[in-house]
Amino acid sequence: MNNIPNNSILVVDDVPLNIKILLEILTQAGYRVSVAKNGKSALEKVEEAIPNLILLDVMMPGIDGFETCRLLKANSKTKDIPIIFMTALSEPINKVKGLQLGAVDYITKPIEHEEVLARINVHLELRRTQLKLAQEEKMSSLGQLVAGIAHEINNPINFISGNLIYAEKYIADLLKLLELYETHTNFTIPEIKTFSQKIEIDFLKQDLPQLLSSMKKGSDRVEQIVRSLRLFSRLDDAEYQLVDLHEGIDSTLVILSSRIKATTTRPAIEIVKEYGELPLVECYVGKINQVLMNLLANAIDAIDEAIEKLESNGADPTPTIWISTTVTSDQKSVLIEIADNGVGMSVDVKQRMFEQFFTTKPLGKGTGLGLAIAREIIVEKHGGSLEVNALPGQGAKFAIAIPIRQGND
Known about the structure:
It contains twelve helices and twelve strands. The chain has helices at residues 16-28, 39-48, 65-74, 92-101, 113-184, 190-198, 201-232, 245-255, 257-260, 285-308, 347-352, 370-381; strands at 8-12, 32-36, 53-57, 83-87, 105-108, 241-243, 270-274, 281-283, 320-327, 333-340, 385-390, 396-403. Helix 7 crosses helix 8. The longest helix has 72 residues, at 113-184.
């Protein structure tokens, strides 16, 4: 199995020689390694930065490996980190104890180069697969939920929308009839006059058409939301379909509309769309919607973070997301660009942003798989490309290229 580079590993051992050996093995294999010389130091380090895996010595002064493992598994922030024990203890009772505490494996000292890498690779791949399956299950469940909601709303809103057309016509006819009565009736009945004044008939005649117009706009808005939900919910499509990518972008924006609106800390985010003439694109529509959702949600997060840090782009203080589409010069792919004037990103973050498990979000708010999965969807499933251009404090621009037809060179 190929190792998964750029993952971070925390080595916890109080023996300098063991640390030196592991540092050489792991850094040569492409892993980022941090070291803790006792259990207390290990617990402090994981609070600062969550590693992808922990190599934990059993016999240490102070808090031993078993107690360190127990404390890590009791913490909601660190309980899912794979822990591999390192020990010279060969008795089955010690191995059973470690596994019962939540460790995933054992490495027996003295340390064997190939064994260490093989066990680490296996458990990192298992963890990656677990998180990926959880993410896909979450998106699948979201798609089913959204489809169910859209279906439930669709029938009543169609009933309302369809009947509003007739209500508009009936009320217009009644108002016309009332006008004719007022024009051709020369006498006034006191009771009618009194009631007309009570209900403010002149105001009613002016406001009723406007009221119906507002109801029609509201109905149209609900229909638009339902349509967007139905488009977005196609997450389980197992075959390529010819789709209008603009519909996917627009439906995603509708779903994110509550996050785009003004908040107590910022004005509404302006959405600038520059759509080109695109052909229908052959793709997994649900997967592409997932990518669009991830990138647009990240753009909103970046804008909010920039405002929190007072790092808004001085050239354009209005929080803005720009979305442009065009066909590439070779006429074989479409290009979608999503840019924001948010917080931007450092060179290190830019280099690592597509790594599995890497995230800049606070603990518990990101799995570090969103962009990794997005790149997998675009590059591996569609043969396209996903690139980013960003600088600190100057926003970011993502460029997605998707072949118009699959299987064509």
